[in-house]
């Protein structure tokens, strides 16, 4: 099928004084701090696909670090696989370390991260890491209520995996998760530092709105922000919070709660500066394009969510933290290959590929490219010249194909 989206590039009123995003080169140097349980895997997948489409280099962890940069150790460039240097994009889990990233990434790198509302985030952490994190394992009957009743009875600040049990966002951002709530000076200074470093702090509850801001910040196209939700739990693995729990979670994770409140407010200020009508229009177009893409990948219907055991293709099975939590994923229809070019099949596959498998695939392809480049490169040239990227030209007859006209984007999916 084919679809034409008009007006996506007409720009928003607040941006009319700037060149339309369609005419500016896309910004390609991005450090996305992948925080835990915040929709960050969905973002990572989007960034991996952007990197592949544009032939960019993604910094990936050395094998000894697994698919994360040796989290929870503080990030250092020694954790980066040499075949993935010099990078344009970095997005795998890490504990943020500004000085090391500044050394590794190009000077014009945009720093981006994502936060989630502390109540739902903590419920997700508590369920996902229940069998790993001792602070959670100690709690009788795995009861979230019991933990929050007396957190200090179960929590040990210095033990392994304690960062999943308190102020996980603060920890991921490089901060001190155990600063007391009364240390307002620390909290303010930490917040100011995050504000200084990150050009955009996305909010998981307003994922699409955050993507609209991201698109404007980076001069990206609609095609670049299409995604499928990844790493979701089944409804039966989720618990609704009983009255009183959200405020206990906020009190226990007070640094995270402060971060969330601050950046949620600043997200809405940025959205309002862009223009609510413009944001709503772009969100609508994004959702429509997303639905079309999904239908095209899943034989005309919306995909059925499946638990890992039901997924036949092992490249598409998400990692399960324990038998007690069900993480859902997707399977592609068996007859997808009929009428689809290999490029279109690849797009559908990558769109739903879980983090661990995609990291492996990307490392393999980048290592191959590195070895080929190494053979061809004169000895002293370390960084190939990079051209600004604007138009993704059709590389065959199958999409997504984005053609730029004045103020119009056409996405063609066959
Ligand atoms: N687009 C979008 N919008 C809102 N929420 C989303 C989205 N994509 C994923 N999710 C939810 O994010 C949770 C998984 O987060 P992460 O991928 O960051 O987890 S992980 O730390 O990498 O394991 C997980 O939350 P829970 O289901 O509550 O556990 C996902 O359902």
Plain-language structure description:
With 414 residues, the chain is of the alpha/beta class. The protein is 39% helix and 10% strand. The longest helix has 22 residues, at 276-297. It has a single domain (30-231, 238-289, 355-403), classed as Rossmann fold, CATH 3.40.50. The chain has helices at residues 40-53, 98-104, 118-128, 134-137, 144-149, 151-154, 168-172, 184-197, 207-218, 245-252, 254-274, 276-297, 342-351, 355-376; strands spanning 2-6, 30-33, 58-59, 89-90, 110-115, 200-203, 232-233, 306-307, 327-329, 401-405, 408-412. It binds 3'-phosphate-adenosine-5'-phosphate sulfate. 3'-phosphate-adenosine-5'-phosphate sulfate binds at residues 36-42, 124, 204, 207, 229-233.
Features:
single chain; 414 residues; alpha/beta; Rossmann fold; five-stranded parallel sheet; three-stranded antiparallel sheet; 14 helices; 11 strands; 39% helix; 10% strand; globular; disordered N terminus; binds 3'-phosphate-adenosine-5'-phosphate sulfate
The parts where pLDDT drops under 50 for at least 5 residues are 1-7, 391-414
How is the largest sheet built, in terms of strand order?
Answer: 3-4-2-5-6
Shape: globular
> Which ligands accompany this protein?
3'-phosphate-adenosine-5'-phosphate sulfate
Q: What is the helix fraction of residues, given as a range?
A: 25-40%
Number of domains: 1
Estimate what percentage of residues fall within beta strands: 5-15%
Number of helical segments? 14
Biggest sheet: strands, sense, closure?
Answer: 5 strands, parallel
Q: How many extended strands?
A: 11
Structural class: alpha/beta
What is the architecture at the second tier of CATH? 3-Layer(aba) Sandwich
Order of helices and strands: EEHEEHEHHHHHHEHEHHHEEHHEE
CATH names the topology as: Rossmann fold
Whole-number average pLDDT? 87
Termini separation: 5 Å
For the record, the CATH class is: Alpha Beta
Query: What's the alpha carbon Rg, rounded to whole Å?
Result: 22 Å
């Amino acid at each position: 099928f084919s679809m034409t989206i008009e007006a996506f590039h007409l720009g928003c009123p607040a941006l009319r004084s700037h060149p339309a995003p369609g005419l500016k080169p896309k910004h390609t140097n991005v450090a996305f701090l992948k925080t835990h349980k915040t929709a960050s895997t969905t973002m990572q997948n989007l960034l991996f696909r952007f990197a592949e489409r544009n032939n960019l280099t993604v910094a990936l962890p050395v094998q000894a670090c697994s698919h994360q940069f040796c989290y929870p150790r503080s990030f250092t460039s020694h954790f980066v696989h040499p075949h993935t240097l010099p990078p344009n994009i970095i997005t795998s889990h890490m504990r943020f370390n500004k000085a090391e990233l500044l050394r590794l990434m190009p000077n014009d790198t945009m720093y981006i991260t994502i936060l989630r509302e502390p109540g739902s985030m903590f419920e997700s952490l508590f369920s996902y890491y229940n069998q790993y994190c001792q602070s959670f394992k100690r709690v009788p009957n795995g009861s979230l209520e019991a933990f929050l009743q007396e957190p200090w009875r179960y929590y040990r600040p210095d033990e392994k995996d304690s960062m999943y049990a308190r102020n996980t966002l603060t920890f991921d951002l490089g901060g001190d998760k155990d600063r007391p709530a009364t240390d307002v000076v620390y909290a303010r200074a930490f917040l100011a530092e995050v504000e200084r470093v990150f050009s955009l702090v996305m909010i998981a509850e307003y994922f699409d709105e955050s993507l609209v801001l991201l698109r404007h910040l980076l001069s990206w196209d609609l095609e670049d922000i299409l995604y499928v939700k990844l790493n979701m739990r089944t409804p039966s693995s989720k618990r609704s919070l009983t009255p009183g729990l959200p405020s206990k979670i906020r009190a226990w994770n007070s640094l995270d709660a402060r971060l969330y409140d601050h950046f949620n407010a600043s997200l809405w200020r940025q959205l309002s500066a862009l223009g609510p009508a413009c944001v709503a229009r772009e969100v609508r177009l994004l959702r429509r394009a997303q639905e079309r893409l999904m239908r095209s990948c899943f034989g005309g219907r919306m995909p059925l969510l499946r638990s890992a055991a039901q997924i036949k293709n092992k490249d598409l099975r998400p990692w399960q933290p324990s038998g007690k939590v069900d993480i859902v994923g997707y399977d592609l229809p068996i007859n997808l290959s009929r009428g689809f070019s290999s490029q279109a099949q690849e797009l559908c596959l990558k769109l739903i590929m879980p983090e661990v498998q995609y990291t492996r695939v990307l490392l393999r392809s980048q290592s191959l490219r590195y070895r080929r480049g190494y053979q061809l490169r004169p000895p002293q040239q370390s960084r190939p010249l990079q051209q600004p990227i604007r138009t993704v030209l059709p590389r065959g007859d199958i999409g997504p194909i984005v053609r730029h006209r004045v103020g119009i984007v056409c996405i063609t999916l066959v």
